[in-house]
Amino acid sequence: MSAAAVNQLVLTACVAELGALRFTPAGLPAIDLRLEHESTVTEAAQLRQVKAALKAVAFGAVAERLARQGMGSLWRFQGFLATPRNGKHPVLHIQDFQQD
């Protein structure tokens, strides 16, 4: 892997599921959520309806902020993708979010 490798994701999505605020063994606030995205994009010169559901997690102050948000609220999330040790699908690690 080169030093210039990039793993960044920006996604506008709504909060479909929001777990309870929990704490890691190190005492760091954490929250699990599921995001849902829906949009229209152009692919091969054709309009396409896109829907996606994605598991996500946040830690620290970002987790505490997310715990106060309502279900179904729409946000612009920024973060990176990582596959959990025993997982099959990537999870979005949210580093920041703001009102879209």
UniProtKB/TrEMBL annotation:
Superkingdom classification of source: Bacteria
Stated name of the protein: Replication restart protein PriB
Entry function: Involved in the restart of stalled replication forks, which reloads the replicative helicase on sites other than the origin of replication; the PriA-PriB pathway is the major replication restart pathway. During primosome assembly it facilitates complex formation between PriA and DnaT on DNA; stabilizes PriA on DNA. Stimulates the DNA unwinding activity of PriA helicase.
NCBIfam families linked to this entry: PriB_gamma (TIGR04418)
Annotated keywords: DNA replication, DNA-binding, Primosome
InterPro entries: NA-bd_OB-fold, Primosome_PriB/ssb, Prisomal_replication_PriB
PROSITE patterns: SSB (PS50935)
